[in-house]
Amino acid sequence: MSKLPKEHQFIDLSDYGRFLGRLLANLLKNTKFTPIHVTLLFVVAGLIAVFCILKNHYYYAAFFLILKSIIDAADGELARLKNTPSYTGRYLDSVSDILLNILLLGSITYVTNTNFMLSFAAFLGLQLQGTLYNYYYVILRNKCIGGDTTSRVFEVKTPTALPGEQQKHVNIIFNIYIFLYGGFDKIIYALDSKAHKSNPFPNWFMMGLSIFGLGFQLLLIAVFLILGLDYLIIPFLIGISGLIIVFIGIRKTLLK
Question: Structure pTM?
Fold first, then answer.
């Protein structure tokens, strides 16, 4: 089930794992597995990838990074199949992603002996890329009739728990989410505070922007690892962050 109505569906370069993720969700829909179980499973895949990088097993690391993206697509699909959307699952997914990103870049920094400040800049760039993509994507989803609305454009207030989840769990995971993502959200919002007032973004724009989706970022990192270009990962992530201003510029000038 797509998060968008048909006329606004675009080729999402970061969502290559969706087909296999959907298959996995269908296999699990009549079991006791919940979307949160699936989220924890992609955390395990990500941790194995980090371990493989530390041991210089780059082919295995690449495999588990891509597997992580596939499993990551399955938790949301399972929630839709079971009709069990939850804010707990939504924020747990994001919190898990950023913590895995820290460990992933930390492991790359360690094996390549990269300067810490450069790695920190790469981390900031990686997160701002993903935040911009999610910001525009959630705006699009909320504008479209029939789109998924579990995610909110402005994450400033603790949401009310949905049926099947406890408010105290939502409160805890939301506060962790704000602590980890709040700064990035504020930066992107400051750069383009009027994006939510624009018309729905065209498919070509969203397809281009999807290079900032976490799935595509992990795919690029996997390719660099397989090619033995691990020392270029940090500089690449810093360099490609320059496209943030390009995409925002296109949105402000062409997509008002």
Answer: 0.92
